[in-house]
Design a protein that fits this description.
The protein is mainly beta. It has one domain. Strands 1-5-6-4-3-2 form a six-stranded mixed beta sheet, with helices on one face. Strand 2 and strand 3 form a beta hairpin. It is globular.
Length: 101
Amino acid sequence: MSPLTISETLIHYFTFVSPDGCLRQGMRSGGQLYSYVASFPAACQNQAYALAYGLSEYGQQVVITDSDNGYNVWKELRSLPQPALNQPETSSIFPTEHRRC
């Protein structure tokens, strides 16, 4: 599936905690949720599209957002992996301390 290209003015940003406990940037567009992959300056449009097409070859839905400053590449969020059956339950899905990745 070819990557979609949309204007950054049409998306909504959010932050989420990834399964490894790190804070990640995400965005919502057209009812779909996406995770940030990389940014490229306006002069590097070809690199942004090369990365996006490379990711889409693995079956991932990819979006490129464009702005005056350049391009951002995003991949669709999938369901979080289920915890292993032998792991203890925790009282919260959020870590007690945020790590920077």
